[in-house]
Amino acid sequence: MAILVDEKTKVLIQGITGNVGRGFAERMKAGGTKVVAGVTPGKGGQRLFDIPIFDSVEDALSATDANTSFLVVPAPFVRDAAIEALSAGVKKLIIYTEGVPVHDAIRMISYAKIRNATLVGPNSAGVVSPGKANVSDLSDRILSEGSVGIASKSGTITYEVIDGLSELRLGQSTVVCLGGDPVLGTTYVDALKLFEADQQTRFVVLIGEIGGMAEVNAADCINKMSKPVIAYIAGQAAPPGKRIGHAGAIITRGKDTAAAKMKALENAGAIVAKQLMDVPGLARKIAEGRSGGK
Amino acid sequence: MVRLCEYHGKQVMTRYQIPVPKGTLVSDVESIDLADLNFPVVVKAQVPVGGRGKAGGIKIAANRNEAIDALKKVIGMEIGGFKTEKALIEEKLDTARELYLSLSIDRDAGTPLLIASGSGGMDIEEIDPHQIFRRPIDPLLGLQPFETRNTVAKLSLQSELRSQAIDMISKMYRMFIELDAFLVEINPATATKDNKLVAADARVVIDDNALFRHEEFRDVPRGSNEFEQRTVELGASAAQIEEGIGVITSGAGLGMATIDTLKLSGGSVAAIMDLGGVVFDPEPSRIAKCVSLMRMINPKAIFINFYFQFARCDTFAKGIAEALGESARTIPTIVRLKGNKADEARAILEQANFTVTDSFAEGCRKAIGLSHDREQG
Which of A61, A213, B66, B228 is the most exposed place for a label (fewest CB within 10 A)? Predict the structure, then answer.
């Protein structure tokens, strides 16, 4: 089981010949993830780590059975690359690139909906189902197969959480990094619904942050879930009106503060961690069946 | 985000033929020329933040002497952390009604959003919610004429003003799309007694991720002070907070989690710096520049917290040692590092006499300890 990526995942890397793309191609191959094609316009016919490169997504799809596109092209070209993939019929896109203009993001996300495709990101650290497929920048060294589902906006916080879980020998079903941008293709609600239906996942860790209403919308969904959810919201100490790195992380009105989100999640039955370091302990309680959560 | 000052926003609006009041921009009280303007005038501080009126940055002047007095007060005034360097002097409009009009990004719906209200002039948060009309716009279709028409119909305007409002919104939308804006807001859009609709204020925020196709806004300052601005120029981002620990992290999320933990454990935070994109292009000298900037604001201690999956810790260690080793280390510094090439990094830093740990919790504890020692010592 697991969600979004698994042993059937066959990856196409758009932007494979750039520095970032090369690094991913090499690591994914070494880790056993099936990378079946790369696309870089003008470099069709070449091979990289024995992966065939094509000029277009259309060419890649007619020659291989790629079913998931991982986009690492530079930000100015992301919209074109994403719409190219969607037009060619790719149903799963994970956009790693950071710095994508928001007007580009909303257009490609709208288009993905019309094409009935799943788009993760932009500015996502990727998606990984340990032991099955790793389409992310999380290192296989820290991951292990297990029953914790993770949905997060922040890559760097996710590393910490997985580290903490690993120390307690709690492996992951799937880790979904939604991305740090204000407008995202896949939301917490989408990920939670998939985790709820996934047999491998026993409980979920939600890592959120200040800004926007996505975590509050997630609360409505958590209300209806049978599986426990642990939630941590970053940015409790962040100054209002100031942006901290993530374009998404800026408090605007008051409903999007850390406190308001923590309250909404708690009311919905989530187990809310006051600080990041509390997450592994709470997870252990649930794993051992000692928690008051659902 | 690139926040344009009012005058700059109005210059851009003028390009789109959106009517603005007649005015002049001044930065020097001595050399002002008001010959072309009819009194009374409004003198407005040019800072890229809201709340200027409440802060005393907007003054009405009935004649030249009053205008000069107002200017002397406004120039140099500090509003929302910004020092006022320029003022806009405009002819005061003969107001009959004030509207609120804006185009923004609804981040949760993932669409552009048209907002209009017949009662403008105050913050959108203060307007009666029943008087606010929202129209989400399909990103692929764009704003349709009927959407503008039907929204404007709700503002109960007489026909002459109605057509001007429709025209203004269409132009605002074009500007919003063409300039990759997060926000184009006219509040108030003033209906004058002789039935002209004029943009009395202008708030324009441009997406800094789209600057590659908008060279003209590249030089607009993005930080609210020198420290923040210089960090942006290095490709990282920072926010100055209060007195205390200067925090540098390898990501925004980790940065927020770090300052949360410090605060909850009794620490205080001077500033947070997220190295962001610098991680992808890790030149020791560039990292050194970022770390040196943190010294500039003189925090009580520096806590550098990074955990890399693939980027090399030792490259960062070299940068840190370069920045803080060159002069006497007057600011106690603790480095938490974990990930690729951590052992090599640790050796570099320990040789330069830094305190190093691989534990997030221990790093936070030690940083607080160091900052408190310095307060007492």
Answer: B66
